[in-house]
Write a structure and sequence with these properties.
The protein is mostly helical. The chain is built from eight helices and two strands; from the N terminus they run H-H-H-H-H-H-H-H-E-E.
């Protein structure tokens, strides 16, 4: 180990997190000729871990102190796909050739999976998260195109066998006449 590398390692050991400190100690002890079992006892690690750190340092040099680990599984969709999903969710389905007035998660996921130009295979949960994070709302507004249909569906739900049922806002009984 070169003297400059040793000085760099010592500076790092004083200011960085414990994982880097352990790696620096392993490298410094190995450079001084300490056997692997003794290094393993020194840093309270397994001998195989010590050997892995030494081999990685021999291959990568000082970059071995900062491994670029990525936790979890690789991403299935890119940032561009996310932007496409949000753009699709904010576009009216009728403008995209769909026969309905409002998106739901199932219909959005189906459209994305079968889109001819840009196919994004995705479940329902990720679009739900993207819609929530980007504050996209599919609730019809009072003056929007789907509101009359929603109102008529609600009105139809208040009928029983064709007879209108009045729904009172105040559940208290009415006074006798």
């Amino acid at each position: 180990m070169v003297r400059v590398q040793a000085a760099h390692c010592l500076r790092r050991a004083r200011r960085d997190d414990s994982m880097r400190v352990r790696r620096v100690l392993i490298i410094m002890a190995s450079a001084s000729g300490t056997p692997v079992p003794a290094i393993a006892r020194l840093v309270a690690a397994h001998e195989d871990t010590v050997r892995d750190v030494i081999h990685t340092f021999n291959e990568m040099g000082l970059r071995a102190l900062d491994p670029q680990w990525a936790g979890g599984r690789t991403r299935r969709i890119s940032d561009g796909d996310e932007a496409f999903i949000v753009a699709t969710a904010t576009t009216r389905p009728g403008n995209l050739g769909r026969p309905f007035t409002c998106w739901c998660l199932r219909k959005l996921a189906d459209y994305l999976a079968n889109h001819a130009e840009r196919r994004v295979v995705i479940g329902r949960e990720r679009p739900r998260q993207l819609v929530r994070d980007n504050r996209v709302s599919w609730v019809p507004t009072p003056h929007g195109p789907g509101y009359r249909q929603l109102r008529s569906r609600r009105r139809a739900a208040r009928t029983i066998g064709g007879i209108a049922v009045s729904v009172r806002a105040d559940p208290s009984p009415s006074p006798p006449r």
